[in-house]
Amino acid sequence: MNKRFERSTLAAMMAVGGLALAGVLSTAQAALPPIKHQGSVQYVSGGIGIDESESMKAAAKDYPLALTFAAQRDGKADYVASVAVTIHDSQGKEVLKAMAEGPYMLVKLPAGSYKISATYNGRAQDRQVTVQNTGTTRAVFEWK
């Protein structure tokens, strides 16, 4: 084979690979559930199905707070939805009250300390978290 043919073949393969990657990324973004607002707080919840789950995981880097919800069933942890979530700031002011529509909830909050209450099947759990200016703070709620 001549060098010119090899270079053009390699360039074509790279272009096809780039298009495939762009298609995967746009599919992941398209699978992200709708972003919601409550006051000044922006959040998204979901993660049901592989596409939506992968989209939520990929989007977590853009949110200062990531919540995960699971429950023990037959000796293993299963993801759950329909979790009532309430977040209060350090002064006790409610900043978010929403229903998680899947096992993941991503929340944009300013840096600070927060109390998160999550209720699933009538059983509540609380977590204290500190949200930083950079990175993602993660909190996991698991019911037994």
Main beta-sheet strand count, sense and barrel state: 6 strands, mixed
Low-confidence stretches: 4-28
Helices and strands, in order, run as HEEHEEEEEEEE
Enter the CATH topology name. Immunoglobulin-like
Structural class: alpha+beta
Number of helices: 2
Morphology = globular
Distance between the amino and carboxyl termini: 64 Å
Level-2 CATH architecture: Sandwich
Core attributes:
six-stranded mixed sheet; Immunoglobulin-like; Carboxypeptidase regulatory-like domain-containing protein; alpha+beta; signal; 26% helix; 144 residues
Write the layout of secondary structure elements.
Blueprint: H1 3-30, E1 36-38, E2 41-46, H2 50-59, E3 65-73, E4 76-79, E5 83-89, E6 94-100, E7 104-108, E8 112-120, E9 123-131, E10 137-143
Parallel strand pairs: 3-10
Antiparallel strand pairs: 1-2, 2-7, 3-4, 3-7, 5-6, 5-8, 8-9
Helix pairs in contact: 1-2
General description of the model:
The protein is globular and about 40 Å long. Helix content is 26%, strand content 46%. The chain is α+β, with helices and mostly antiparallel strands and 144 residues long. The chain has two helices and ten strands. It has a single domain, classed as Immunoglobulin-like (Sandwich), CATH 2.60.40.10. 22% of the residues are buried. Mean pLDDT is 85; it is low at 4-28. It comes from Achromobacter seleniivolatilans. Keywords: Signal. Residues 1-30 form the signal peptide. This is Carboxypeptidase regulatory-like domain-containing protein.
